[in-house]
C-alpha cells in the first residue's frame, strides 16, 4: 500500500524535528519546511497528501500558503497549527479550505488521531465528489416550513412550470434571492440549458452592455474578435440579473428594448438575434422608492415584475430559524467532519431572539463558525459570536436575553428547574460541569438538584 506523505511546516526547528520523528514512527513519509516559500515549492514538487501548517511563519504567512496550496491543488489536505487563542484565524483558515486545525501546544496523540481521520475521510470524499459531478444538477434545497415559506414554495412551483418569462425577486440581503432564482431554473423545463448570473452592481456600466449583448469584431478598439453576450450564451435557459436596482438608466433603456421581443444586436453589429431566455432579476432595494427618486424606470419595473416574488426577512418567519440552523449544522458537519447533534437550549433561545439583519446568510455564517469552533456534540451559547449575544441583550450586558420576562409573568421555580435540567443535559450529567454552567458552587447545585427531584 502506498504510504501517505506529510509535509510539516514550522519555523521552529525543534517542533519540526519532533513531529518528523513522531510521524515517521507511525509509518508516514515526512518532509519538512521552515518557511512559507519552501513549503509552497515542496507542496508543488512533492505532492504531499497532507500539510501540517503553522499559521505563524516568517515571510509569507500560513494563511497565504494555505490559499496558494488550495489554488493549485484543492485535494491536498491542510491542517493548520494555531497559537493558543487564535480562534478567529482558525475560523478564517477553515473557510479558506483548511481541513481542520490544532492549537499549540499540541498533544501528539490527538494530533495523530486528527491526521489519521483526515487521511481516511479523504479517500471517501473523493469518491463522493466524483459521484456528485456525474449526476445532473438538481434544484437546491429551500428550507423553511413557516406559513411564508409554504406560500412561497407554491408560487415558485407555479412559476417554474409556467412560461412566464420575467420574474422579479425582492428581499433584504441574505434572504435567498439567488437561491430562489436557481431553484426556479433547475425546476423548470430549462434545467438542462445554461443558468447565467451577472451582478449588475459589480460590472461597470460601460462593460455591462457588452457582457449582456456581446460585440462584433472591430466594434471598438479592444474588440479583437467577436464575443457573444450572456443573452446569446444562455439561449434556452435563464439569465439572472442580480442587483438590478443598481443598473444605470441608459442600460435600463437598452434592457427594456430587449425585453420587448427578446431580440438584440451585438454592439457594432447589424444582424438581429432573437433568443429564448427567462430573465430573473433580483434586488434588495426598494424599487418603488427608486422610481420616485427617478433612478429606476417605471416601465422597466412593470416589465420585470410580471411575476413578483418577495422574500420575507428571517425575523418575520422565526419558525424557520431552527430548521435552517439544523440544516446548516448537517451541512457543515459534513464539511468539517464534526458530529454536532443539536443546539443547547440557551443558544437556541438566543438565535430565536436575535434580529438577524443579515438574514439567512448571517445564520449560515454563524453556524459555520460555531461548528468550526465547537468540539462538543451540541452547539453551545459560547460558540455564538459575542456581538450577536451582546446585541440580543443590549440592556443587561450579559447574554441573558433568553430570560426576558414575558408580560404574563413566569414561575421562577419552574425556570430554575428547567435550567438545572438543561445544564445537566448539556454536560451529560456531569454535576460539577453543570454547576459551573450556572455559576453555582457544587453544594448549591446539588441542593437544587435534590429540591427538583434530580437527586435522591
Ligand atoms: N430557505 C433557505 N434554505 C436553505 N438555504 C438558504 C435559504 N435561504 C438562503 N439560503 C442560503 O443563504 C445564503 C444566502 O442566500 P442568497 O445568496 O440566495 O441570498 P441573496 O438574497 O441573494 O443575498 P444578497 O442580497 O446579499 O445577494 C446562501 O448560501 C443560500 O444558499
Ligand atoms: Mg444575491
List the helices and strands and how they pair.
Elements lengths: L4 E5 L3 H13 L3 E5 L2 H11 L3 E5 L7 H11 L4 E6 L4 H9 L4 E4 L4 H27 L12 H15 L4 E6 L5 H10 L8 E5 L5 H9 E2 L11 E2 L1 H4 L4 E5 L6 H13 L1 E2 L8 E2 L3 E6 L3 H6 L5 H7 L2 E5 L9 H16 L5 E2 L1 H9 L5 H15 L4 E2 L6 H7 L19 H15 L4 H7 L4 H10 L5
Parallel strand pairs: 1-2, 1-3, 3-4, 4-5, 6-13, 6-14, 7-10, 10-13, 15-16
Antiparallel strand pairs: 8-9, 11-12
This protein binds adenosine-5'-triphosphate and magnesium ion.
Question: Could you characterize the architecture of this molecule?
Answer:
It is a single chain. The protein is of the alpha/beta class and 456 residues long. It folds into 3 domains: 5-134, Rossmann fold, CATH 3.40.50.2300; 147-312, Rossmann fold, CATH 3.40.50; 317-451, Helicase, Ruva Protein, domain 3, CATH 1.10.8. It contains 19 helices and 16 strands. α4 links the parallel β4 and β5 (100-103). The radius of gyration is 27 Å and the shape is flat. Bound molecules: adenosine-5'-triphosphate and magnesium ion (MG). Magnesium ion binds next to α7.
Keywords:
single chain; 456 residues; alpha/beta; Rossmann fold; Helicase, Ruva Protein, domain 3; 5-stranded parallel beta sheet; 16 strands; binds adenosine-5'-triphosphate; binds magnesium ion
CATH level 1 class label of the largest domain: Alpha Beta
What's the main sheet like? Answer: 5 strands, parallel
CATH architecture of the largest domain: 3-Layer(aba) Sandwich
- Enter the CATH topology name of the largest domain: Rossmann fold
The gross shape turns out to be flat
Radius of gyration: 27 Å
Amino acid at each position: 500500500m502506498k504510504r501517505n506523505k506529510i509535509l510539516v511546516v514550522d519555523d521552529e526547528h525543534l517542533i519540526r524535528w519532533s513531529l518528523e520523528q513522531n510521524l515517521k514512527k507511525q509509518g508516514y513519509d515526512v518532509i519538512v519546511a521552515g518557511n512559507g516559500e519552501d513549503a509552497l515549492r515542496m507542496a508543488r514538487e512533492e505532492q504531499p497528501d497532507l500539510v501540517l501548517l503553522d499559521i505563524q511563519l516568517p515571510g509569507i504567512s500560513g494563511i497565504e500558503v494555505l490559499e496558494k496550496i488550495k489554488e493549485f491543488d484543492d485535494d491536498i489536505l491542510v491542517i493548520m497549527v494555531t497559537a493558543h487563542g487564535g480562534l478567529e484565524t482558525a475560523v478564517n483558515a477553515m473557510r479558506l479550505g483548511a481541513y481542520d486545525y490544532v492549537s499549540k501546544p499540541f498533544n501528539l496523540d490527538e494530533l495523530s488521531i486528527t491526521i489519521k481521520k483526515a487521511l481516511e475521510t479523504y479517500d471517501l470524499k473523493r469518491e463522493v465528489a466524483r459521484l456528485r459531478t456525474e449526476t445532473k444538477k438538481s434544484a437546491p434545497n429551500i428550507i423553511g416550513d413557516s406559513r411564508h415559506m409554504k406560500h412561497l414554495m407554491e408560487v415558485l412551483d407555479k412559476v417554474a412550470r409556467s412560461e412566464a418569462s420575467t420574474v422579479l425577486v425582492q428581499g433584504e440581503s441574505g434572504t435567498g434571492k439567488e437561491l430562489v432564482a436557481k431553484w426556479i431554473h433547475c425546476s423548470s423545463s430549462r434545467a438542462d440549458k445554461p443558468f447565467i448570473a451577472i451582478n449588475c452592481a459589480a460590472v461597470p456600466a460601460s462593460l455591462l452592455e457588452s457582457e449582456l449583448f456581446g460585440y462584433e469584431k472591430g466594434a471598438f478598439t479592444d474588440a479583437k474578435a467577436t464575443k457573444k453576450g450572456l443573452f446569446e450564451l444562455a439561449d434556452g435557459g435563464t439569465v439572472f440579473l442580480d442587483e438590478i436596482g443598481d443598473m444605470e438608466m441608459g442600460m435600463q433603456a437598452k434592457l427594456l428594448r430587449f425585453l420587448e421581443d427578446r431580440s438584440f444586436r451585438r454592439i457594432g453589429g447589424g444582424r438581429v438575434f432573437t433568443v429564448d431566455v427567462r430573465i430573473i432579476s433580483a434586488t434588495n432595494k426598494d424599487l418603488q422608492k427608486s422610481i420616485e427618486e427617478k433612478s429606476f424606470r417605471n416601465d422597466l419595473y412593470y416589465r420585470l415584475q410580471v411575476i413578483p416574488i418577495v422574500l420575507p426577512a428571517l425575523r418575520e418567519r422565526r419558525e424557520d430559524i431552527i430548521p435552517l440552523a439544523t440544516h446548516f449544522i448537517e451541512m457543515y458537519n459534513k464539511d468539517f467532519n464534526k458530529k454536532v447533534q443539536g443546539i443547547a437550549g440557551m443558544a437556541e433561545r438566543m438565535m430565536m431572539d436575535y434580529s438577524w439583519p443579515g438574514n439567512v446568510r448571517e445564520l449560515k455564517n454563524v453556524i459555520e463558525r460555531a461548528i468550526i469552533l465547537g468540539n462538543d456534540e451540541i452547539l453551545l451559547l459560547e460558540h455564538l459570536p459575542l456581538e450577536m449575544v451582546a446585541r440580543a441583550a443590549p440592556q443587561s450586558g450579559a447574554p441573558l436575553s433568553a430570560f426576558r420576562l414575558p408580560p404574563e409573568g413566569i414561575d421562577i421555580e419552574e425556570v430554575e428547574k428547567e435550567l438545572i435540567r438543561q445544564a445537566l443535559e448539556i454536560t451529560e450529567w456531569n454535576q460539577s460541569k453543570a454547576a459551573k454552567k450556572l455559576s453555582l458552587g457544587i453544594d448549591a447545585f446539588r441542593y437544587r438538584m435534590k429540591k427538583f427531584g434530580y437527586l435522591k
